[in-house]
Specification:
Length: 339
Amino acid sequence: MQGIDELKKEIEAADCQSKDELEKFRLRFIGRKSVIGDLFARIKEIPPEQRKEFGQQVNELKNLAQNRFQAMKEKLESQDSGQEAPPFDLTLPSAVGVPGSLHPITITRNRIIEIFEKIGFNVSDGPEIEDDWHNFTALNFPPNHPAREMQDTFFIEKDPDIALRTHTSSVQIRVMENQQPPIRTLCPGRVFRNEAISARAHCIFHQVEGFYVNENVSFVDLKQTLFHFAKEMFGPDTKVRYRPSYFPFTEPSAEIDISCNICKGKGCNVCKYTGWVEIAGSGMIDPNVLTNCGIDAEKYTGFAFGMGIERIAMLKWEINDLRLFTENDIRFLEQFKPF
Ligand code: PHE
């Protein structure tokens, strides 16, 4: 009985100031595991003649605790709603989500792939970090070719040489090592060259390699394929010309020019007043390269080309500075729509 009196005083004196304190009060006085619950459990231990009175006392204590709890809870809740404003304004209109857009390089790459897929090309992939074999040696680069030197190539390791690929032609080797003709594939990707960054050059840019290996592939196939591409990409009036050139991995080799898309061949500063702009390197795959990859060079021939995606995008949209592609200025990027 004495204990009940003390608990009664404790309950009457309770004045919880926070939800934590209120929860402590609840655990102590309310429910089966509380001190009062404990007292209920002990009623049966009380001698029968005192049991009734004890039971009443405990019941009163329970009601007292519940009322006190309810009162403190209501007080805390009214304080809550009176004081704390929510940390945001529920009446503000919601922010309108701005949908992103594809990067112009992505749009251009997708369009290039789309054009070539329609004439039977698939897409292959290769690593950006390459060994000397795939980037140079298998492509018929002589041991002391200047393109291997530090000024062009970002080397990661020396002896054996590991470097960032300087062109997507490395993927030609990877594909031909693993597949026998007929092969007709595109290899888009990033390439890396140690060049000073300017409006016309960057140390990271994108190329699409394309090549076709089969029986009886000739230079005519190369010409027609790129002629088709140029018209699809730049319009039916586009003219194409092939200039003799040199690459270690193609023989004969040609650089491919199209009539300037910007001045329509009349002459402007993009085409340096020649009316022509270069879009790709190309040629018939050198038999040595086929042999290096385990392809029978007596039986098969092939053509290959490699074009810069930035270059195509610049011509398509009349963009005059390569650096814009990597500056991530939204005002620049949001202008481009797939074509
Ligand atoms: N790899 C060459 C370059 O980066 C382009 C090329 C590809 C030329 C395929 C011929 C054949 O300049």
